[in-house]
Specification:
The chain has eleven helices and no strands. It has helices at residues 3-12, 18-24, 29-69, 84-99, 106-112, 115-120, 128-133, 148-166, 176-190, 192-201, 204-209.
Amino acid sequence: MEQREAKHLHELLSQARLPEYEAFCGGDRVAALRLFCWNTEVAAAFYGPLQHIELALRSVLDQRMFHLFGQRDWWAHPEAHLHRPAQAKIRDVTQQLARQSIPATSSEIVAELPFGFWVSLLGRGNGYDQRLWRTSLYWAFPGYRGGRAALHRELDYLRVLRNKVAHHCPIHHRHLDADHETILRVLGYVDSQLAALVGRYSPVSAVLARRPTTR
């Protein structure tokens, strides 16, 4: 990439983002744009592994909550007692489906609930440790031997990463090798074969190996 090309691209891309890269690269505009492009590439590489952890978590927690409360709309069970943020998210999803003229079936609501909702079921909530984790949710993680709080911290860490990827934020400064290992480790808690499959086909390591020089 030459200076003329860098100047042209700089004028087209978000001014709100590029100064962060330029500061990181000591004011070198060419290096900053290279890093900007690589950040896009590595974020895209993380998309697949993060998608697998989100889908797997949704699937296993939905199943465990169904078995615990005996109904597909388990959030409506009188003993579910979800905390207010979770209840609000279910209302938001239900209203969103109504605006789109989509029947608010249990399966539709489950499919639309975001990653953060599922992660929150492993938080403290309304006595979640005793009522949800110890009675049912720990069965969703056969490869895990720790406590609820530690697992929640790992998943919430991945939630933050997932949101940064989704909102096109810089992630180049993170310990991305460790992030990738965390995804695979948490997937292994759910299913070792799924973790092995994602690890085999994940492009993250290859993209990390071609990180551009910035200084």
